[in-house]
Amino acid sequence: MAELMGRDGTWTFDGEVIRIVPGSERGVHKLRQYLGEFTVPLAAVAKIAYEPARKGGRLRLRLRDGADPLLQVTSGSLPDDASPYQVTVDPGRADVAEYFVDTVRQALTLEQIPDGPTDRYLLPGPPVPLTAAGVDGIATFDGERVHLEWRWNTSETKRRWGPRDFTLTGLEAVEWQAPSGLESGYLRFRLYGAAEQPAPERDPNSLELWGFKKESGTTALLAAAVAVRLPHPSAGPPQARTAGLPQTDTAEILAAAAATAPPAALAPPTGSAPTGSAPTGNAPTGNAPTGKAPAATAPAATASAADDDHDALLRRLRELGELRRDGILTEEEFTSTKAAILARFHPAG
User: Fold this and answer.
1) Average pLDDT score over residue span 87-102
2) The domain spanning residue 22 has which CATH number?
3) How many Å apart are CA 204 and CA 319, to the nearest integer?
4) Is 140 buried (19+), middle (13-18) or exposed (0-12) by CB count in 10 A?
5) 260 shares a domain with 213
6) Among candidates 295, 269, 268, 300, which has minimal Cα distance to 283?
7) pLDDT tens-digit profile of 199-225?
8) Residue 103 counted as domain residue
């Protein structure tokens, strides 16, 4: 048994796992505190080292590539102080740190643990449910479904799509990119069969990220929680688990197009008599029977409604073109959806 206590956390090794407990003091990065206590199995460890310094030093753990979903999705781009795999060694505790390192190294040798990459995750990932905020929206994940809600400042393209929901069976991968300089980062959920991805501020499957401590820290944890439930990227190309998944977004567009134009504007009202026909029944002169418009006003009303609905459908076509331009729809999806929308201009019969 080996234990090292520092200002920003405590590490304990029992021969099988390293238990990492982050500190609760103000200087400890929020991501480490949000992640909380967790264990690292010996099989996930590649190396451990003590880095001495004038004021104590640092104990650093390096995991095997592919073992940890958090490191996998962040691709080594976490800020150094946000990494949960390092702990500060207080002055006067160097001997304890060196003993801890020797104990872990001896166990790695005895168990013949390889230091090469692994094709499966060896850590369970952050606990769920999780909520994470980006610049233009909020993501939640309950272990089975991702939900995106947009903020007031989101782009018009995203606002048109409305809230988004993704099941794990519809996701091919999750991508996370930290903000860098003047470039914003993103949390992106990549769907099966998706075309080239647009910029995060226009992608309805992404949150835009800006800054790290205040806005983006928990998005990395949410990305890891999703990633650990998807096929490991080193396990070979994943197979689509549900046929036709790329058509999910097209169906949403078709539904939106159908809701845009009231059917009454696209076909004559049922029960209306043809122009010039005499009214039936014994209705008083000057009053139209129920379901029929007065002959003098019906053409103008119908033309006005048709103009409004044609304008709405034209707007939908423009939006559809933007989605193709941004790479959200494939050419095939764009063509089939456009045909369905145009059919509403010229209904059968």
Assistant:
1) 94
2) 2.30.29.30
3) 13
4) middle
5) no
6) 295
7) 889 999 999 997 655 456 799 999 999
8) yes
